[in-house]
Amino acid sequence: MQSRTILVSLVAAALALGFGTASAADGNAAAGKQKAAPCEACHGTDGNGIAPNYPALAGQYQDYLEQALHEYQAGDRGHSSPAISGRINAIMNGMAAPLTDQDIKDLAAYFSSLPSKLSDLHGKIQGGN
Ligand code: HEC
Questions:
Q1: Closest residue to atom 33 of ligand 1, CA basis
Q2: What is the CATH number of the domain that holds 101?
Q3: What is the pTM of this model?
Q4: How many domains does the chain have?
Q5: Which residue ranges of the chain lie beneath pLDDT 70?
């Protein structure tokens, strides 16, 4: 009887701590939408970029977006040749700098939830199919 009471208490405590509310831990798209305003200037309100030099984020894998943002923040995602500009992307390093881990999860959840216009290269590579 007593162990049952302890078990119930443990479950209640776990719920109070937020276990089971996976969306908070994994990123909240609604919260991400609120945080996305500065990003939309370049990545577009639909997440597809206002010009080809701004990558499409809409429909991209959430973990990919999170990884990219952590790398920009760490100064470890930039030009592929360190001789040119190191591994720091001047724009995105600055944009990612103030983000918390939760901001990154929320932004990634939001952009990955948007309809994708991503496509593969079928028919676009000479000699390919
Ligand atoms: C001033 C324009 C600008 C703003 C504002 C901006 N970005 Fe970017 N973003 C870029 C550019 C340019 C790149 C491509 C950089 C590169 O070559 O690595 C990029 C790349 C990215 C990537 C990597 C995409 C990929 O497929 O490699 C992510 C993720 C990203 N931005 C998220 C964001 C988020 C989230 C915000 C808002 C907090 C934001 N960006 C604000 C210009 C911008």
A1: 39
A2: 1.10.760.10
A3: 0.80
A4: 1
A5: 1-25, 79-86, 128-129
